[in-house]
Amino acid sequence: MKVMRVTCAPSNPIMDWHSVNWKECYRTVKAMQSRIVKAYQAGRLGKVRALQGILTRSFAAKAIAVKRVTELNQGKKTPGIDNELWDTPTAKADALLNKLSQIGYRSLPLKRIFIPKNNGKRRQTA
């Protein structure tokens, strides 16, 4: 008998960062990644795209992403371009549940910086 695992965000959100079952999150992401590899090796590119979408929207993948950025990263104490720092468990849980939703997401335009050159012109960086 095959048991189905739910990989999407739970309907009742977890409010406590420390109550996340990390072992299950890592196991879920690893299993989904192996399914993606097997589908790619079988040449089923449509299945690969579908599984990638499921993985990117899954609660486990989002939780691991937030954990990597806020705990395991060397720059974990550096705020991003939005000057937000997720340093408390409440901020991490809020980011996981509210800020990383796929619905209604629109990326912000790149920040343009003009660097003066020696000849008086300006060089644009993104």
Give the topology:
Blueprint: H1 22-41, H2 45-57, H3 59-72, H4 89-99, E1 113-116, E2 122-125
Helix pairs in contact: 1-2, 1-3
Overview of the molecule:
This protein starts with 21 loop residues before the first helix and ends with a strand. It is mainly alpha-helical. Strands 1-2 form a two-stranded antiparallel ribbon. The protein has helices at 22-41, 45-57, 59-72, 89-99; strands at 113-116, 122-125. The mean pLDDT is 82. α1 (22-41) packs antiparallel against α2 (45-57) and α1 packs across α3 (59-72).
The level of helicity is 40-55%
Question: Which range does the strand content fall in?
Answer: 5-15%
Terminal CA distance:
53 Å
Strand order in the sheet with the most strands = 1-2
The counted number of beta strands is: 2
Largest sheet: 2 strands, antiparallel
Total tally of structural domains: 1
The computed structural class is mainly alpha
Order of helices and strands: HHHHEE
Report Rg: 19 Å
Low-pLDDT segments: none
